[in-house]
Amino acid sequence: MFKPLVAIVGRPNVGKSTFFNVIAGQRIAIVKDTPGVTRDRIYADTTWNGRDFTLIDTGGIDPHSEDVLLSQMRKQAEIAIETADLICFFVDARTGLTHQDEEIADILRRSHKPVLLIANKLDHQGLDDIIYEGYALGLGEAVGISSTNMLGLGDVLDEIVARLPEEAKETEGEDAKIINLAIVGRPNVGKSSLTNRLLGEERVMVSDIPGTTRDAIDTRFEAPDGTVYNIIDTAGIRRKRAIEDESVERYSVLRSIAAIKRCDVALLILDAQDGVTEQDMRIAGMIREEGKALVITINKWDLIDKETGTLETFQKDVLGKLVFVDYAPVLFISALSGKRVQLVWEEISRVYAQATKHVPTGALNDVLGDAQIAVQPPMTGGRRLKIFYATQQGTLPPSFIFFVNDEKLMHFAYERYLENKLRQAFDFTGTPIRFILRERDKGELT
User: Fold this and answer.
1) Based on the domain organization, do 59 and 91 belong to the same domain?
2) Domain annotation covers residue 116
3) 146 and 27, same domain (yes or no)
4) What pLDDT is stored for residue 221 in this prediction?
5) Residue 397 φ/ψ region, left for φ over 0, alpha for ψ in the -120 to 50 degree band, beta for the rest
6) Residues with Cβ < 8 Å from 67, sequence gap 6 or more?
7) Terminal CA-to-CA distance of the chain, rounded, Å?
8) How much is the pTM?
9) Domain end: 163, 197, 231, which one?
10) Could you give the number of structural domains in the chain?
């Protein structure tokens, strides 16, 4: 069902992410000359000579580090090795082979997976010796490239495709059925813990250190109902003034915002211990502004002291502060214990169905006609708003074109009233609704 997986591994700072970005054709992984910048696995689909495959970028492997983050990076790389059909092992042509390279090579030999040795940063002929040194690792001849200067990339892609398993089938028509789900929120609210719980594996790093997830990470997953999702676990979005302009974190936040732009459904995670913060409100506003379906998830609910009515009171407070997205369902869960997490899939499926709903034109105009009879459209300067006709333009979010006599006569309060009438008639739980006003003379519509 899925494309062959090609894992990019090696010690820190050998140019893995630069290669990943060049092949993927966009800056997906964060690139900076600081060891340890890439922490999680990052995926990107690509094609070469008619063969589709998925690249996995990983954090640098430090076999003996006891640092919490470096050890988790090592674990993520090990998971990538386990799941990959082919491993691209990167070494640095400028520094030559190191003891770390030899230890990583030993790990790869024991994996019994196909390995392609790649000597990166081969910027001039005088460095060709590294290709022959590679034989000492017992992994065959190295392919020399320079990701920065884009040298030798065609050769290495040829080698990758030649080593892909023959039984791997190309996916046809799959992308049209995939739902993009972004898991967003402030730092340390449990986004990665929930992602891992939903996936049933340690897909992303989990730590009590805020900001552990730096990249927006994509994972393909088939939910219990058979729906295929592309799950995007994102870095925590902090306030702008808390982020240094040129920091790695700044780029992480930009990618989180980009994840909201490209998702179909956003899962906004709030911390039950903090309630709704100002930053939660900003993130919810971004989601609404981008027209995305939304499920609000209150995590760490198990840590709250409860009595009769606690949940109802808390939910009322959440929707009171997030009144501009009061159409969104609210779930109370514990990602750590797994309590009520199974309901998340149900709500995601429900709001996606509402966001992609098509309303018959006749039924739409019947509802609008009844609404105008019940409450007359507003009048300004002696002129009353007239809605001649309406039709649905599209979905994600549901968008409706209203043909009116003068769009300036549509007041916000009446637009809100019409939205409420449409929600009463057609549901639209979890999705914003957009109205597009077009001025027409009544005679043009007859």
Assistant:
1) yes
2) yes
3) yes
4) 80
5) beta
6) none
7) 51
8) 0.60
9) 163
10) 3
273: Cβ contacts below 8 Å, ≥ 6 apart: 300, 303, 304
pLDDT in tens, 188-232: 899 888 988 888 865 443 334 343 333 445 777 887 778 888 888
CATH number, position 382: 3.30.300.20
Cis check: omega of the bond before 114, within 30 degrees of 0: no
Phi, psi of 414 (to 5 degrees): -75, -35
Same domain, 296 and 322: yes
The rounded distance, in Å, linking the Cα atoms of 76 and 63 is 12
Query: DSSP label at 174?
Result: -
CB 41 within 8 A of CB 35: no
The total number of residues written for the chain in this structure? 446
Question: Which positions of the chain have pLDDT values less than 50?
Answer: 1, 28, 30-39, 167-176, 203-216, 236, 240-252, 442, 444-446
Domain around 368: 361-445
Question: Residue 426: which H helix or E strand, with range?
Answer: helix 412-426
Q: How far is CA 316 from CA 189, 251, 322, in A?
A: 20, 35, 10
Both 302 and 191 in a single domain? yes
* Tokens encoding 83: 């799941």
